[in-house]
Design a protein that fits this description.
The protein is α+β, with helices and mostly antiparallel strands. It is built from four helices and 14 strands. Among the domains are: about 50 residues, no CATH class; about 70 residues, no CATH class. A five-stranded antiparallel sheet has the order 5-6-9-10-11, covered by helices on one side. A four-stranded antiparallel sheet has the order 1-12-13-14, covered by helices on one side. A hairpin with a 2-residue loop joins strand 10 and strand 11. The protein starts with a strand and ends with a helix.
């Protein structure tokens, strides 16, 4: 995965692609106007631009007594398809459970049965779990969100639904490199350099370039 340098040529404004930059030699070359310069100075200029004035769609910011909290949330169209699949799946399983609980005869693996015995229970449990997981997944895609709490020098990312999810803590050290990485298809990751050497990656679903640039700018403001 290549670094996604969201910088433009200071002379003509053309975007600089990764192949236009030699980080080891600290130089860049604009193919559009043949302008050359120091890449470190260009990156410093980019960081000094600060937080974009226009907040991306699906992002909200709130202050608390310790710092700020960013909320990221968009309904994903995949959630509607998964919800439809989940409803059909769970309807079939519910009907099968109803038949077993009612004492009506049914066939399981070629054997005629009535009621719910141990074999039928073991058979149905995985299907019930699949139904519950797909329903939760659909709800997450439709109503789930990411919450980023920022404090001086550190942050915590929560991703989940109704308080159920995953929390990840990371550091925002002074001078830590914060950059965008291209996932393709207009999607990006935000990479935050960590003292351990392994970067912390914001892999939030469908984070586009504008949202990524906004998040990177905000994170840079909280380095300490």
């Amino acid at each position: 995965m290549a670094a996604f340098f969201q910088v433009n040529c200071p002379k003509c404004g053309a975007p600089l692609l990764p192949e236009n930059v030699n980080v080891a030699r600290n130089v860049f070359l604009c193919r559009a106007c043949s302008r050359m310069g120091k890449f470190s100075e260009l990156m410093q200029t980019e960081e000094e631009k600060g937080i974009p004035e226009v907040m991306p769609h699906g992002v909200s910011v709130a202050k608390d007594m310790h710092g700020i909290v960013l909320h990221f949330g968009k309904m994903k169209k995949e959630g509607f398809f998964l919800l439809l699949f989940s409803l059909v799946w769970n309807a079939v399983i519910s009907f099968f459970l109803y038949v077993m609980a009612s004492g009506k005869p049914y066939t399981l693996n070629g054997v005629k049965k009535t009621g719910m015995d141990e074999t039928a229970l073991l058979f149905i449990i995985p299907f019930v779990l699949i139904g519950a997981a797909t329903l939760f997944g659909a709800m997450f895609l439709l109503f789930g969100a990411a919450k980023l709490a920022l404090r001086p020098g550190r942050g915590e990312l929560f991703r989940g639904l109704w308080g159920v999810g995953r929390r990840q803590r990371f550091l925002l050290a002074k001078g830590a490199r914060i950059a965008l990485e291209d996932e393709g298809g207009g999607r990006v990751l935000v990479s935050v350099e960590q003292p351990s050497g392994r970067p912390f990656l914001f892999a939030m679903t469908a984070m586009d370039t504008e949202m990524g640039k906004y998040l990177a700018a905000v994170l840079r403001q909280w380095r300490e």
